[in-house]
Amino acid sequence: MKHAVYIRLVLATILIPLVLISAINLVVDPLNVYRLVSVEGFNQIKPRAQRFERLAKPLQLQRYNPELLILGTSRAAYGLDPESPWLKRNDRPAFNAGVMGATLLDMVPIARHAALTTQVKELVVDIDFFMFNAYNNTPWMFPHVVKKSPGDIGYLPAQWLSTLPSWDILDASRATLTGQDEYNRLGPLGLMDNEQKVAQYLRKGQGLAPVFDAIELDYAQAIWSPCANNAYQYTNGFTGYDTWQQLDKMLLIAAENDLSLTLFTQPVHARIWVLMQETGFWATYEQWQRDLAAHVEAFRQKHPDADVKLWTFSFFNDITSEPYPPAGDTTSAMQNFVDPAHYRTQIGEKVLETLAAGEPVPGFGVPMTSAMLPAHQAMIRRDRDAYRQAHPEAVAATRKHSAEGLAYREAHGIQCPR
After folding, report:
1. What is the C-alpha to C-alpha distance for residues 114 and 368, in angstroms, rounded to an integer?
2. In CA terms, which of 233, 254, 336, 391 is 20 to 30 Å from 66?
3. CA dihedral 206, 212, 216, 222 (to 10 degrees)
4. What pLDDT score was predicted for residue 98?
5. Would you call 111 exposed, middle or buried from its count of C-beta atoms within 10 A (0-12, 13-18, 19+)?
6. Cα dihedral sign, 224-250-159-149
7. What angle do CA 325, 331, 335 make, to 5 degrees?
8. Helix, strand, coil percent values for the chain (each to nearest 5)
C-alpha cells in the first residue's frame, strides 16, 4: 500500500507541473499557434515567436490553411507580404513560411507538410546559392515538427509535446506576459516586420554602417561556406547528403500534388555580389545558375505536365545599387533594403507583380533558362565591373571583409572534402 501511495505521489509530482505548464502555454500561446485567447495587454504581442519560427510556422500554416505558400530564407520572410494583392489576385489566402537561414532541408519538409495538411495549390519558393552547398546543413534549435506522410498521425502529439509541456515555451510565455509593450517581430501570416527591424538596428545608436559591415562579414565567414578550405560542393563528403536530390523532392511534391511551383533567385544588394567575387565564389555561382536551370529543365522533360517555373531577380540595377548610409550617420535608413541581405516589402511587391504577370522585366526579373544564361551572365559581369569601378570604397570594404572572413574560416572552419 505504501508502495502504491509513493508511486502516485511521484507521478503527481511529475504530472501536475507539466499540466500546469501546458495550461499556461496553451492560454498565453507565445508562438501564436493555438489562438484560444487573444487579449490586448495580455498576450496579443508575441515578442518571442520569431525565435521559434521553425517550430511555429508549420503549425500556423496548417491552422490558417493557405492556398498559396511562400517558402525560403529570411529574405522571403522580410520581403514577400502574404497579403499582397498580387498573391491574392485569385482570392487565394497566402502564408509566408520563410525562415532565417533556410536550406532545402527546411523547405522540403514544410512543403510536404503543407501538401498533406492544407488546401495549398501554389508554392512560391526563394532559391539561394548558399542552400546548395551541402556543408551548409547545421541543425537549428527548435526544429519543425511536420506531417511526413499520409499515414503519419504522430506529428500531432509531437507538436503538442513541443509547444505545451516545454520549459522553453514557458519562458516564451513569460516574455509574452511581460513584453506587451514590445512589438510583433513575426506577423500572424508569417511576414517579418521591416520597419521594426530597421528601428532595432538604429536604436543601437551607431547607425546602419556597423550592422551592414557585420552582415557582410557573416557572408564571408559562414553563409556561403563553413569550410576552412572554402569548399562549395553539392554533395556532403561526410554524410552523402545531396542538394540536387533534395531539390528533386521539392519538385516531386509539386508534381505529385498538382501544385504550381515558382522557383526564383532574389534581389540582394550589389555589394553582396562584389563580396562574393572577393571571397572566390563568382565562378561557382555562375556554374550553380547553369546547373539549376539545366536541372529544372530536365525535370520538366521527365514531367511535362508539371507546372514548374524558374526566375531570377538577381541584377545590378538602381534598386540593388542603392548607396549604404555612411559611417557616422545614426538616423538614415535605406529605401529599398532593410539591410544588404533583405529587401523591403515594396521591392517584394515588384517581384510578386512580375511573377503574377509572367512577363519579363529586363534588368529586374526574367525567366531563367539555359539558353539565356550565357548572355545574361556576361551582362551581369559587365555590370559588376562597372559597379566596382564606380564604387572603389565598396570594393575596399568587401575586400577587407572577405579577407577577415576567410582568415576566420582557415582558423576555425571544418576541413571539407572536395
Report:
1. 26
2. 336
3. 70
4. 97
5. buried
6. negative
7. 55
8. 50, 10, 40
Contacts of 171 (CB under 8 A, 6+ apart): 48
Q: Are 78 and 50 in contact (CB under 8 A)?
A: no
β-bridge pairing 366-367 and 308-312: antiparallel
Q: Residue 86 corresponds to which cell in the numbers above?
A: 498580387
**Which residue intervals of 96-242 are DSSP H helices?**
104-117, 155-163, 167-178, 194-202, 209-218
Place of cell 501554389: 122
Give dist(CA 391, CA 230) in Å, integer.
26
Contact assessment for residue 66 and residue 120, using Cβ atoms and an 8 Å cutoff: yes
> Is residue 270 within 8 Å of 393, Cβ to Cβ?
no
Residue bearing cell 576567410: 406
pLDDT digits (tens, 9 = 90+) for 384-398: 999 999 999 999 999
Phi-psi region of 368 (alpha: psi -120 to 50; beta: other; left: phi over 0): beta
- Measured CA to CA, the distance from residue 298 to residue 306 in angstroms comes to 12
Query: What is the total residue count of the chain?
Result: 418
Q: pLDDT for 68-95, tens place per residue?
A: 999 999 999 999 999 999 987 777 899 9
The answer to whether residues 223 and 215 touch, using CB atoms and an 8 Å cutoff, is: no
Annotate 55-78 with b (16+ C-beta within 10 A) or e (fewer). Answer: bbbbbbbbebebbbbbbbbbbbbb
pTM of the predicted model as reported, rounded to 2 decimal places: 0.95
What percent of the chain is modeled with pLDDT above 90?
Answer: 91
Distance CA 96, CA 60 (A): 10
- Is residue 74 within 8 Å of residue 99, measured between CB atoms? yes
